């Protein structure tokens, strides 16, 4: 007999509204994310501004609503003023984060105008590594200020009359990390972020600010970092960031498939840290989470490390992970986790958009294509609308080396009026029977998308990505084995992610 799980769902039980910014991504000046990624003026699809139309079209298909820029580690050694004005007057510089000669061809104006043309909300980061309060406030003024002030007038002189109206701003990046240029203690960073944030909001009171949280749950300073930083920044910030990457280590497939449980614990612990600060301050303010870097990244097993990178130029190939069907199932599971925390995670960024640990790959002067991880993200962005429902999942568990016991089945559901979607993950190597219990509600499941894991190593190039898509990504009818009033039973394929459109009526 297959293992059996039960998922109780009802439209009256809700987590919270889904903020469309949770389907964000990330464009950093790293490797080929910008140059030969979103931008390649000599490409046959390039528009009049030099941006690749094929990449933009795939970005729309992916469902990306927001893009974070310009970093990432890159931002902590970046002087934004060097990247505005006439391109021919801009000087290249050494990016210390990724040991690359940055040509400064693409800067603030080029990125923001690309985002505007494509209907993508920008999320900007300021340099709190090697710079500070004045530079951060000046960048807000440059982007959002009206005519009549120094930096707004510079923007106008550079050809942009209308303010960009950037609303979401990161106060630096991963400042807890010793790898970060300008790394600081929690106390040092918290004081600087508070002052920078105060100045930025004096320039534009309508902006939202993200304080740097921990770079991972494994950081020695995790928890205490959040407490200290939020004590300093409480009055000015709206969100605290989280970053997390997951990979299969030493063939430990069970732990990798259980990565969503690790993400869930991370979110709950950061929420607890933020709420503890609120309680101590007797504050009703609720800090939410900007999960502005997340993905599968083979950081330990494939990446040589920043210190081992030679000094390079001409958009070198850095961190161009290729993905498998297994990776795609895990990405789908991580999306389930984000939906289940819709009340506290309004912002999230799949890192990154193109070429660098990305769902979209390109070749210079060549094609652009979808990696296997593209499919669960695009499907979720398309189907998950309205409100995230508060499900009750009862499932057997499997023991993992990294995360302890994790449930074999995870699930999320969304509802917008009577139209919704159900997302189900089977982390087991065997089929699992899932009973969807929906008392008093009629549930109709439509034709959806299934992703199944493979057992083959990922290979570079569009041919392998197409092979995985053909063999492990499919449109499917709901695999219903029985249904009666208030109860629908499905069978989930082994190691699979399933997304089904649904109608719920009383």
UniProtKB/TrEMBL annotation:
Q: Which UniProt keywords apply?
A: Carbohydrate metabolism, Glycosidase, Hydrolase
| EC code(s) of this entry | 3.2.1.55
What SMART domains does the record point to? Alpha-L-AF_C (SM00813)
For whether the record's keyword set contains Hydrolase, the answer is yes
Q: Please write the reaction equations for the catalytic activity of this protein.
A: Hydrolysis of terminal non-reducing alpha-L-arabinofuranoside residues in alpha-L-arabinosides
The answer to whether UniProt assigns keyword Hydrolase to this entry is: yes
Q: Which GO terms describe its molecular function?
A: alpha-L-arabinofuranosidase activity
Tell me the SUPFAM superfamilies matching this sequence: (Trans)glycosidases (SSF51445), Glycosyl hydrolase domain (SSF51011)
Q: Which Pfam families match?
A: Alpha-L-AF_C (PF06964), ASD1_dom (PF22848)
Q: Which residues fall in a coiled-coil region?
A: none
Q: Which GO terms describe its biological process?
A: L-arabinose metabolic process; polysaccharide catabolic process
Q: Which stretches make up the Alpha-L-arabinofuranosidase C-terminal domain?
A: 292-496
Signal sequence annotation: none
User: Known InterPro entries for this protein?
Assistant: Alpha-L-AF_C, ASD1_cat, GH, Glyco_hydro_b
Its family remark reads: Belongs to the glycosyl hydrolase 51 family.
Give the quaternary structure: Homohexamer; trimer of dimers.
Listed name of the protein: non-reducing end alpha-L-arabinofuranosidase
Q: Which organism is it from?
A: Cellulomonas fimi (strain ATCC 484 / DSM 20113 / JCM 1341 / CCUG 24087 / LMG 16345 / NBRC 15513 / NCIMB 8980 / NCTC 7547 / NRS-133)
């Amino acid at each position: 007999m297959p293992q059996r799980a039960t998922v109780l769902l009802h439209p009256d039980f809700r987590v919270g509204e889904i903020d469309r910014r949770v389907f964000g991504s990330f464009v950093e000046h790293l490797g080929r994310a910008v140059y030969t990624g979103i931008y390649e003026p000599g490409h046959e699809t390039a528009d009049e501004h030099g941006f690749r139309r094929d990449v933009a079209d795939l970005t729309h298909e992916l469902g990306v609503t927001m893009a974070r820029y310009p970093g990432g580690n890159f931002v902590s050694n970046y002087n934004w003023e060097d990247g505005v004005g006439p391109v021919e007057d801009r000087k290249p510089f050494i990016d210390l984060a990724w040991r690359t000669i940055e040509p400064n061809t693409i800067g603030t104006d080029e990125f923001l105008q690309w985002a505007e043309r494509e209907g993508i909300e920008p999320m900007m980061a300021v340099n709190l590594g090697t710079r500070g309060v004045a530079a951060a406030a000046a960048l807000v003024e440059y982007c959002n200020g009206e005519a009549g002030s120094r930096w707004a007038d510079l923007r106008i002189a550079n050809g942009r009359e209308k303010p960009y109206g950037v609303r979401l701003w990161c106060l630096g990046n991963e400042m807890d990390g010793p790898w970060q240029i300008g790394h600081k203690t929690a106390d040092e960073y918290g004081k600087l972020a508070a002052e920078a944030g105060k100045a930025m909001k004096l320039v534009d009171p309508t902006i939202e600010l993200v304080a740097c949280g921990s770079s991972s749950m494994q950081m020695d300073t995790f928890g205490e970092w959040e407490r200290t930083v939020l004590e300093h920044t409480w009055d000015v910030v709206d969100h605290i960031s989280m970053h997390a990457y997951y990979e299969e280590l030493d063939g430990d497939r069970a732990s990798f498939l259980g990565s969503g449980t690790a993400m869930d614990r991370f979110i709950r612990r950061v929420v607890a840290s933020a709420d503890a600060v609120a309680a101590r301050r007797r504050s009703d303010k609720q800090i939410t989470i900007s999960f502005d870097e997340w993905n599968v990244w083979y950081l330990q097993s494939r990446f040589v490390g920043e210190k081992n990178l030679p000094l390079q130029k001409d958009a070198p190939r850095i961190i161009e992970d290729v993905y498998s069907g297994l990776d795609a199932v895990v990405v789908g599971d991580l999306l389930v986790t984000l939906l289940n925390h819709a009340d506290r995670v309004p912002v999230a960024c799949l890192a990154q958009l193109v070429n660098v640990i990305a769902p979209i790959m390109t070749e210079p002067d060549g094609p652009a294509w979808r990696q296997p991880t593209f499919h669960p993200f695009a499907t979720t962005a398309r189907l998950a609308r309205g409100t995230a429902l508060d499900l009750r999942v009862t499932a057997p568990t499997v023991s993992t080396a990294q995360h302890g016991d994790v449930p074999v089945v995870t699930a999320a559901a969304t509802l917008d009026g009577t139209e919704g979607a159900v997302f189900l993950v089977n982390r087991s190597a065997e089929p699992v029977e899932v009973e969807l219990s929906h008392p008093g509600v009629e549930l109709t499941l439509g034709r959806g998308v299934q992703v199944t894991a493979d057992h083959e190593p990922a290979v570079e190039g569009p041919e392998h990505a197409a092979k995985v898509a053909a063999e492990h990504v499919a449109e499917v009818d709901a695999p219903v084995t029985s249904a009666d009033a208030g109860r629908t039973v499905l069978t989930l394929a082994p190691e699979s992610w399933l997304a089904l459109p649904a109608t719920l009526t009383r």
